[in-house]
């Protein structure tokens, strides 16, 4: 039959140990199967695997220091990332008669200001680090300027690399 084990976590020689009592007394030649489910936190920086050492010890056995078995379990952190974006204003129409003023440093001579805001959200369940987000913005269409990239700003602990041609005319 199945029964639940009584297990107690403790520290032993600087290692975290989980000690489970399998039963006492056991008949000679008894065979048992144990399924264990462990919940381990803080694995984000552990690499791609975690190793456990399992050992069966008996107080009555003539050889109570039985050899241990190493079990390696692959670790895979999962996180769902969501990118949200918006443009302010949501739509823009230039008058047909409008023309860009070459060499001007006034913003209004280069078009209507449109701000694009992107938010990257981690929906979990794991934390993430070292995320790279690349945004490709078409700044030309048919050899003519479509978007004049003026500036790039961030909030929080984010590092960005400015794209080539950012504010090339120093507007």
TrEMBL record:
Pfam families: Integrin_A_Ig_2 (PF20805), Integrin_A_Ig_3 (PF20806). It is a single-pass type I membrane protein. One of its GO terms (cellular component) is integrin complex. Residues 3-75 form the Integrin alpha second immunoglobulin-like domain. InterPro entries: Integrin_alpha_Ig-like_2, Integrin_alpha_Ig-like_3, Integrin_dom_sf. SUPFAM superfamilies: Integrin domains. Keywords: Glycoprotein, Integrin, Membrane. It is found in: Membrane. The keyword Oxidoreductase does not apply. One of its GO terms (molecular function) is integrin binding. GO terms for biological process: angiogenesis; cell adhesion mediated by integrin; cell-cell adhesion; cell-matrix adhesion; integrin-mediated signaling pathway. Transmembrane segments: none annotated. Residues 82-168 form the Integrin alpha third immunoglobulin-like domain. Its main location: membrane. This is ITA2B protein. It comes from Calonectris borealis (Cory's shearwater). The gene is Itga2b_1.
């Amino acid at each position: 039959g199945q029964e639940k084990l009584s297990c107690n976590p403790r520290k032993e020689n600087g290692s975290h140990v989980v000690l489970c009592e399998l039963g006492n007394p056991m008949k000679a030649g008894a065979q048992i199967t144990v399924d264990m489910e462990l919940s381990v936190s803080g694995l984000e920086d552990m690499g791609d695997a975690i190793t456990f050492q399992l050992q069966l010890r008996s107080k009555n056995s003539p050889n109570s220091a039985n050899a241990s078995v190493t079990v390696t379990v692959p670790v895979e952190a999962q996180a769902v990332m969501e990118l949200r974006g918006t443009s302010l204003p949501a739509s823009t129409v230039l008058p047909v008669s409008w023309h860009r003023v070459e060499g001007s440093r006034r913003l209004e001579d280069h078009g209507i200001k449109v701000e694009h805001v992107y938010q990257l959200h981690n929906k979990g369940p794991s934390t993430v680090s070292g995320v790279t987000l690349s945004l490709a913005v078409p700044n030309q269409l048919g050899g003519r300027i479509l978007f004049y990239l003026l500036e790039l700003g961030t909030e929080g602990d984010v590092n960005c690399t400015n794209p080539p041609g950012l504010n090339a005319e120093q507007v």
